[in-house]
Amino acid sequence: MPRRKANDRTGPVKTRSREGCSECRASRVRCDTKKPSCTRCQERGLQCSTKVVLKWESEFASRGQAFGRAGVWSKSKAAGSPSTPSASGPNAFLLGEQEWCFIPQVEAWNFVNSSTDAFRLPYRVTPTEDDHALVTTRRSRVVSSPYESGSAMVQLAAPLPSLSVLPQFSGSVHGHLFEYYVQRICPRTIASANTPSPLASIIIPFCSTASETVSKAILALGACALSLDNPEYYAVGLRLKSEALRGLRHRLTASGSLVSTSDPEILVVMMLLCLYELVDHCDQRWIVHLKGAKELIRFRRQQAALPAPQQDDAPEQDEVTSFAERFFAFQDIMGRTACGEQPLFGTDYWQHNERRIDHWMGCSPELVSILSDITELSRTRRRLASKSDKDEFSSNAAALNRRLEELVQDVDEDDAALQAIAELKRLAAVLYLHCALNNASPTTPLVVDYVRKILKLVSDMLDAGTYVGLAWPVFVAAVELDSLNDELWKDDDGNVVFGRPLVLRALAAMAEFNILSVARTRAVIVKVWQVRDNVLTLPLGDASDNDWECYVAPFSTAMSLA
Length: 562
Description:
By secondary structure, the chain is mainly alpha-helical. It has a domain at 153-349. 49% of the residues lie in helices and 1% in strands. It has 23 helices and two strands. The chain has helices at 22-26, 39-44, 57-62, 92-95, 117-120, 129-133, 172-185, 198-201, 203-207, 212-226, 233-255, 257-261, 264-280, 285-304, 319-339, 365-379, 387-406, 416-436, 445-463, 471-479, 499-513, 519-533, 547-551; strands at residues 487-490, 496-498. The protein has a two-stranded antiparallel ribbon with strand order 1-2.
């Protein structure tokens, strides 16, 4: 029997009910919407519910289904073509009267997207494609040479030995990776353009007399960093890393514990492999080298403390060993400011009254010492029981604050960029102190003021072409942004500068000029923002936790902020 036309039908037109229960909707059956239970649910003994069911686009995409009305097509068009308003339809006269709004330019940092994993796995931080895109933007072009015009050239304290004197770097591939290490990696590890990086001025001369294991570690680091531009080098880096690890294991097992602790080559290889993991993924793997170096250094210092007759063969602390020890201690302290975990390296690596700025660290040893004291004091906050303990805690916190306020960091020469970075880190330290010790939060006026100061300095330094040494200040300011008051200032054109887009732009710029992975730093910052936005759906620990312990520490394990 032929189907009746629409104008031949009798009776009321049946339309879909928007108030139907979820059981009838799931069965695609019309619901009579009776309360408290519709007729169908009452007859079948079903629970009648009209609650709102959230649907996530990612779930539909994983099942290969259209989300909502996406992909709906009309019979008046060819099959598969999207339906559009007909120019001859009853509303055709409205098309000419419509006013179209200007569509603004949408960039990658305009939105912080949440997926279902943000709710199912609220405390897991995994860098997403958006995070990794920061360090892979250079892959959009084919890099014919890793040393483009304008790249920074490192200045060595001593002349660089020629490749003929360094046979381990001979050959087209090895020579290519070594030059990339010198030309591109070393300059990106130091904020000052007036002083060479210790990775060049200290490690390269040491490499000329060291074993092949050190050379393999240097080449592996060069290949790993170069793979960010050219993925073909990633397999080369893995092979060289494996050879360096094999040489390190052989040296540790063959030399004996006493010889190993006095051998600076082992610490250098551990440091280079640690940098490899920081460039590659910046996950728990770099902590393995940090812990191994800690045990090695601890045993070395124990041997040095023995009576003189038992340590006649112990060498003096050389420049290579001193730099390697400071590298690991600095990585440990800066990373622990975020997560507040137990320290691996103590405060005895820093002079409390040394205010001269270290060119590699971008701040003075005294500032690093204060940061270590703040982190350690924050770890004791939970154990405060008596009033006297709380009074002592407040007194110590006030003393650290006074030290920061009065700290003046000196620089050897007139280096405005280095002086600005040191001041930026001091301001970030003040902000960190108030959040970790004084229970300040993003809505605290003092925090709002310091966040604005820090991000304004960061913006000015990026405009001036300074990109190295900003990771920790940007992180501290970003995680303490007030999500409900994101306006920072107005630029010269009168446009409002917002905090979150500024942070994401800064991270994108830093990723282009740093060898360390910025992807994980971005992932943690975005996670903190998501948790602050979804505060009603996530547990926030016990009542004794302050803002830093609730929103920052749970997501910041194994971060490198040095």
